Amino acid sequence: MYATYPDLDNASVFITGGGSGIGAALTEGFLRQGAKVAFVQRSDAAPFCDEMEQKYGRRPLFLPCDITDMAALKAALDQAAEAHGPITVLVNNAANDKRHKTEEVDEAFWDWSVAINLKAYFFACQHVVAGMRAAGGGSIVNFSSISYMMGNAGYPVYTTANSGINGMTRSLAREFGPENIRVNAIAPGWVLTQKQKDMWVTPEGLAAHIDRQCLKVELQPDDMVDPVLFLASRTSKAMTGQALVVDGGVVVTG
Questions:
Q1: In Å, how far are 9, 22, 26, 35 from 56, measured between CA atoms?
Q2: What is the pLDDT of residue 227?
Q3: 203-237, pLDDT tens digit by residue?
Q4: In contact, 43 and 20? CB cutoff 8 Å
Q5: Residues 243, 65: Cα–Cα separation, whole Å
Q6: What pLDDT, in 10s, does the model give residues 180-201?
Q7: Of the candidates 4, 32, 233, the residue with the CA atom closest to the CA atom of residue 139
Q8: In 21-102, alpha helices (H)
Q9: What is the Cα–Cα distance from 59 to 56, expressed in whole angstroms?
Q10: Integer-rounded Cα radius of gyration of the chain
Q11: 164: left (phi over 0), alpha (psi -120 to 50) or beta
């Protein structure tokens, strides 16, 4: 059973990293709503697009792109808008949480990590504003993480970017709110994508993390779909500048 958001039917949606992991779940979730979805990523997503077309009768528009190349990212956004109409939902999802130690970071790694995890978010937001303004409004959803809220070690440039996403989200929400452009963030907990399982998950580490959660469940990519759909739709029309934590209850606020 899935919630239905009628205003997302036929909406022009753009997702970074939309062919694998959380991004693939988001692409499918928007297709399920009847949206027109375009997405970028570096690896080939043709088999995934074939699967989506077979299931939903419409094919997402896959645009190969390295989001650290700002010119290529902007060109992909333009191509998506030309194919589907002005982008009214932007989901900045692509990220890279490569583990690293502070003393090992050089300028090249810093620039690479910030480009993926923050710079691309900013310039994607910047680039869609004009189309959203012309369309009478839109919704931007930026993926952050609870990692910076927890003060996690092991990837300091990544957590720095996550915190920056939160600040950027608030500032852009203030700047573009008068034009009915909403900007929110979503902060997932440890979502067990295939990449996480292959690279970082250990039985001991996972058990320790779930022990910190209020809800004793393993978070899956599908668990991020409904929160993003909610932020993308008019159901959340009075929400902007917010960070929605979806982590099973690790970070408890109030």
A1: 13, 19, 14, 11
A2: 97
A3: 999 999 999 999 999 999 999 999 999 999 999 99
A4: yes
A5: 27
A6: 999 999 999 989 988 888 888 8
A7: 233
A8: 21-32, 46-56, 70-84
A9: 8
A10: 17
A11: alpha
CB neighbour burial string for 139-166, b if at least 16 within 10 angstroms, e if fewer:
bbbbbbbbbbbeeeeebbbbbbbbbbbb
Among 3.40.50.300, 3.40.50.2300, 3.40.50.720, 3.90.226.10, name the CATH number for the domain at 6-188+223-246. Answer: 3.40.50.720
Domain residue limits, the chain: 6-188+223-246
pLDDT tens-digit map of 20-29: 999 999 999 9
Q: Is 5 one of the catalytic residues?
A: no
Comparing CA positions, the residue from 139, 86, 148 lying closest to residue 117 is 148
Q: Phi/psi at 108 (nearest 5 deg)?
A: -65, -45
Determine contact, residues 65/41, Cβ cutoff 8 Å.
yes
Burial class (CB in 10 A: 0-12, 13-18, 19+), 100: middle
Higher pLDDT, residue 93 or 254: 93
CA distance 21 to 192: 9
Taken as a whole, the chain contains a residue count of 254
* 61-64/138-143 β-pairing: unpaired
Which two tokens mark 240? 């902007």
* pLDDT of amino acid 210: 92
Q: Out of 5, 121, 155, 158, which one is annotated catalytic?
A: 158
DSSP state letter for 149? T
Quote the tokens at residue 26: 């988001």
Q: How far apart are CA 30 and CA 225, in angstroms?
A: 8
